[in-house]
Amino acid sequence: MLTCKDVAHRADALIDGELTGWDLLKLQMHLALCGACRRFVDQMRVTRDISRTVLALPPEDLKGTEAGRIDSLLSRLHDQKQHGGS
């Protein structure tokens, strides 16, 4: 059985669809039993999705600066946290 630390190290591979076979099954089994790890993986998915969305926006929508992109990303993450999930 995987530990929570193992899940944390492999969560990005899970989210990116890179795990298969026995590795995927072991991780899914752990997630079925561990609510903390499920929440961790869910939050990683939300963070990835919001990051991709914000970074894909045209610069004119974000004041044209890297700081504007970061501000938008942080604002969306904060809003997501306030509304309790995805």
Q: What is the mean predicted local confidence, pLDDT? A: 84
Sheet/helix structural class: mainly alpha
**What multimeric state do the chains show?**
single chain
Task: Tell me the β content.
Answer: under 5%
Helix and strand pattern:
HHHH
The major sheet is characterized as: none
User: Treating each run of at least 4 consecutive H or I residues as one helix, how many helices?
Assistant: 4
Termini distance?
28 Å
Q: From the alpha carbons, calculate the radius of gyration and give it in angstroms.
A: 16 Å
Low-confidence stretches: none
Number of structural units classed as domains: 1
Task: Tell me, briefly, the overall form.
Answer: elongated
Total number of β-strand segments?
Answer: 0
Binned, the helix content reads over 70%
Please characterize this protein's 3D structure.
With 86 residues, the chain is mainly alpha-helical. The protein has one domain (4-82). 74% of the residues lie in helices and 0% in strands. It contains 4 helices and no strands. The chain has helices at residues 4-15, 21-33, 35-56, 66-82. Helix 1 packs across helix 2, helix 1 (4-15) runs parallel beside helix 3 and helix 3 packs antiparallel against helix 4. The radius of gyration is 16 Å and the shape is elongated. The mean pLDDT is 84.
Produce a short descriptive summary.
This protein has one domain (4-82). Helices cover 74% and strands 0% of the residues.
